[in-house]
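Researcher: Please generate the 3D structure of the following complex. Treat every line as part of one assembly.
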Amino acid sequence: MWAALATVVDPELDRPLTELGFVRSVAIDGAAVEVHLRLPTSFCAPNFAWLMASDAYDAVADVPGVRHVVVELDDHHDSELINRGLAAGKGYRETFGHEALESLDELRETFRRKAYVVAMERAITRLLPRNVAELTLADVPDGDPVFRHRAALGLSLDGSEPLLTDQYGGPPGPLELRRARSVRISVEGNAHFCRGLLATRYENEVLT
Amino acid sequence: MYRKDGEDYFIVDAHIALWDARPGNQRNIHGKQFIDCFYDYHRNLSPESELWPYEDYLYYGSDRLMRDLFDDGYVDHAIFQPALLGEFYRTGFGQTDEAWELTRKHPDKLTYNHCFDPRNGEAGLDQLRADAERFGLTGVKLYTAEWHGQSRGYKLTDPWAYKYLEVARELGIRNIHVHKGPTIRPLDRDAFDVADVDHVASDFTDLTFVVEHCGLPRLEDFCWIATQEPNVYAGLAVAMPFIHTRPRYFAQIMGELLYWLGEDRIMFSSDYALWTPKWLVERFVDFQIPAGMTEYAPLTTVQKKKVLGLNAARLYDLDVPERLRLPDAGEPLTGPREPAAAS
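Model: Done. Output below.
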């Protein structure tokens, strides 16, 4: 079950929920599974909260032998709304009603691109002081996260592809690498702050 | 004023509040969740010596505010940036009457900025006109994730927001402080996105847009728009206390802001009472980019003086004593600084 939940990532931080400490409890009773999630604050963005909770629901439901799934998000300003939606098998639009326009696909895509930019910046920084303009995917060691992130965006994994691109995989602008560094600093900073806030919020809690 | 090593610093705390989050003022569970979220920020980012008991944090009152800012905190002038949060608190979160009373008593020390909400339509425009006259407004604070009936957020590019900005301009309101939060309509989008600031900054070039928390958690998006718009500023609320818990991250924030915006568009604030200014001012004056972080130039005393007070004083026409001023260095208005650091 833990392995299934480990496939669910926080889209903003690009880290698994299990690693971030967002999984509060997992209870298995035969074919029934109940998972509780927790976040660093009551006011974490509800659209991201929904993505994580519904992804967790799907991941648990896909585990062979599981028949009944309960996923609940605890202590959030939208806990009631989100938990009701999950329990009723509703989607994003049905759950959020008039506040939802189409889907969260674009939001997810935006943060997939940020995660790619971060991975790209790290891969390039590890290869410095080589000439950035000449670097290609062939220069990056196998297993580097940049390949996974390119694949998630449908970008080519061919070794001849230039390593530095814009967020869409296209030719870089003049400040592209510098801008990528800002993205990396921002995401790393947020991840650290979120972990800290979670630890402060639940400092006396033992996970089950 | 703060003095250290023979240098004198004029201090403007550009984002303070006088809030009442006591249970009696909480309208519902969200009132408690909101102040608890603030208190966790406070607990997580404060040095142990600066921690407040929860009871004090709920409400601290005028006397304590004056003491924390002006007696103990070195602050020369502070600016109220109130959040209404009318759906969470009975008389609102920021206490308008009490803050205004205090401002009238100490006009040399305090500026009162009020808030508006474009979802209040025509009636809200009349209220804005009345508020501008009552408070002599030169600035407003906008919280775009404010809950309002069925709506839990808006964008600055919404048609009514444009009407409000046009009226604000007519009324002599020059400084628009923007604070992004977790909700927006529709929820399909990233609520923290600052792209709407880019649009209004281009369309209202005579207004200044101060993005609070320097866009955090979207520092990168903020820097990218602010480097192109000379009337977009960074407020350091919430960023400042990282100086204690994560000095390397704080160095990165300062390094990024100085690279993309330059030293004239960054403003100190304690975000009182999230934190108190005393320790933040002391730490900031002592702060330096860590050795080994060679991608950023060291912070200069001139930069610190501008960030701690002179930049905000310029925006709000505050009277800075002659000896504490700096000559205009003729910095470029837009574009990244020190391009060599981009490599």
